[in-house]
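Here is the promised in-class demo. Please do not try to memorize the tokens; focus on the logic of going from shape to residues.
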């Protein structure tokens, strides 16, 4: 009398099938769960017992063994309650075992037998679809599961509804696919930012070429405001990207009302964020902020205030577009292709370089403050700009700036130019932007007119640019040319402008 239920365990964004086997045998009454369960899974038996009790069912006074195979895969999380409960009902011959075997099941049980939302429903639904199985998930997660395609989904509110459906006395309808309603709040618009023309230009270039951007300027100059405008000028997520991003958010339990994300994520973790919170990991491995920002924007405000180790941990993901969390028994990979926007004050008090307000320790204080950011990290930030204080004339009755949707059109056009170029050059992936071009591909993509080449050569020699620094300028120049219509050969004007976005931190 063994009942088997399909469920899953998560390793990074990978979904691993787990087979829950429930056996009732003679012997002293007992209820054991084996197969590398963590604490939440071990506690599952109390919830299952209570939920069945709430329906007026009691466990048989026999030996009940739950095995979760494969035994060497660690089982984390609370979504095993429902598969265990259904396995028990199958083994007790209350529900037909053959029918239960057609489903992948996940859900957490309350003591009153209602089914609570869990994380990871969307990737599980995709997994069920690939394996031609049906899905049982909590009601609140149904809207998320329905995106996975044309599969049968049961999203019951409680265990009783589910039992009634399987027994045929009540019919559950398929949940509707939902978009996340949070997306309806309007995004901050660039037209609200007065003045700051050069910072806005840098933001537009960053959006067009997918470049990382560092803004340095005194407090209250609008750096945070500018950064918040970025999602509004980036092109919308493609359907495939939206699914990918939503899967990560689903795993992190960050799709609370069960809808798909349709906007580029904008994450701004506080500078007290720990390294696991930033890159992923922790007791139960979860995606970190950089993975939640996948295909979107990671905004680090007050960059030098972040812990050094946290910042250094960003270097590898910035290069590879993913992050690897090493555990004792597995390496867990999360995608993390994000665009980094960082903001900082030039020194601790913030007014370095402002003759009326800088402190007595200037410029030493600024050098110390800025030295907290390592060279290798700065090397990965293509655009570095100074943001000046807003001019009072601009603030006071200054003309409204360009709206975000106008800028977004130029950005989209520049991205189209890049996509067709890099497709022709054989670059892989979904975001084909200049920021990702390197080595031979960049050389082929960034042809310069002779004067432009001379200018870059001279500037590089004078400023003792590293190879990375040289290519950074080249990539930005390529984007500037793409924004101006996408001429194949980069002009001297574009190179000259690009050289201006190379702020050398610390005097
Ligand atoms: N260029 C600007 N145009 C309009 N308002 C601004 C501008 N810069 C700053 N502000 C106002 O000042 C506030 C603080 O700006 P913020 O972006 O937080 O500055 P920072 O991050 O540089 O310290 C904003 O909420 C906004 O009201
Ligand atoms: Mg700020």
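The designed amino acids, position by position:
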């Amino acid at each position: 009398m063994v009942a088997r239920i399909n469920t899953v365990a998560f390793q990074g964004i990978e979904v691993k099938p787990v087979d829950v086997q429930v056996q009732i045998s003679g012997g002293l009454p007992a209820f054991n769960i084996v197969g590398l369960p963590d604490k939440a899974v071990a506690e599952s038996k109390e919830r299952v017992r209570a939920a069945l009790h709430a329906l007026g069912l009691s466990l048989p006074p026999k030996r009940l063994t739950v095995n979760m195979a494969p035994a060497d895969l660690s089982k984390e999380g609370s979504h095993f309650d429902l598969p265990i409960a259904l396995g028990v009902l199958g083994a007790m011959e209350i529900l037909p075992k053959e029918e239960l075997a057609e489903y992948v099941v996940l859900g957490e049980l309350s003591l009153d037998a209602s089914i609570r939302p869990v994380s990871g429903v969307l990737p599980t639904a995709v997994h069920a679809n690939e394996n031609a199985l049906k899905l049982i998930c909590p009601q609140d997660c149904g809207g998320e599961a329905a995106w996975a395609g044309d599969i049968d989904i049961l999203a019951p509110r409680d265990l009783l509804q589910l039992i009634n459906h399987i027994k045929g006395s009540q019919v559950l309808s398929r949940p509707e696919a939902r978009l996340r309603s949070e997306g309806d709040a309007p995004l901050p618009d660039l037209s609200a930012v007065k003045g700051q023309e050069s910072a806005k230009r840098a933001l537009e270039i960053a959006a067009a070429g997918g470049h990382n951007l560092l803004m340095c300027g005194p407090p209250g100059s609008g750096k945070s405001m500018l950064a918040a405008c970025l999602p509004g000028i980036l092109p919308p997520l493609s359907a495939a990207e939206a699914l990918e991003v939503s899967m990560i958010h689903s795993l992190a339990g960050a799709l609370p009302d069960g809808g798909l994300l349709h906007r580029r994520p904008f994450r701004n973790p506080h500078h007290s964020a720990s390294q696991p919170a930033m890159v992923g990991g922790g007791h139960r491995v979860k995606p970190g902020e950089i993975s939640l920002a996948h295909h979107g924007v990671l905004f680090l405000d007050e960059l030098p205030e972040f812990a050094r180790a946290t910042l250094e941990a960003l270097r590898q993901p910035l290069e590879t577009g993913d992050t690897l969390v090493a555990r004792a028994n597995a390496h867990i990979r999360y995608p993390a292709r994000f665009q980094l926007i960082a903001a900082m004050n030039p020194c601790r008090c913030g007014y370095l370089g402002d003759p009326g307000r800088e402190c007595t320790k200037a410029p030493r204080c600024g050098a110390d403050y800025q030295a907290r950011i390592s060279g290798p990290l700065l090397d990965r930030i293509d655009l570095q700009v100074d943001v000046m204080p807003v001019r009072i004339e601009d603030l006071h009755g200054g003309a409204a700036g360009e709206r975000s949707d106008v800028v977004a059109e130029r950005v989209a056009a520049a991205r189209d130019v890049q996509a067709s170029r890099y497709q022709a050059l054989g670059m892989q992936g979904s975001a084909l932007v200049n920021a990702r071009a390197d080595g031979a591909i960049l050389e082929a993509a960034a042809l310069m007119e002779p004067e432009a080449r001379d200018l870059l050569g001279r500037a590089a020699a004078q400023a003792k640019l590293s190879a990375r620094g040289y290519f950074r300028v080249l990539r930005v120049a390529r984007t500037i040319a793409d924004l101006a219509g996408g001429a194949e050969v980069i002009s001297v004007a574009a190179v000259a402008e690009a050289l201006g976005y190379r702020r050398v931190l610390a005097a």
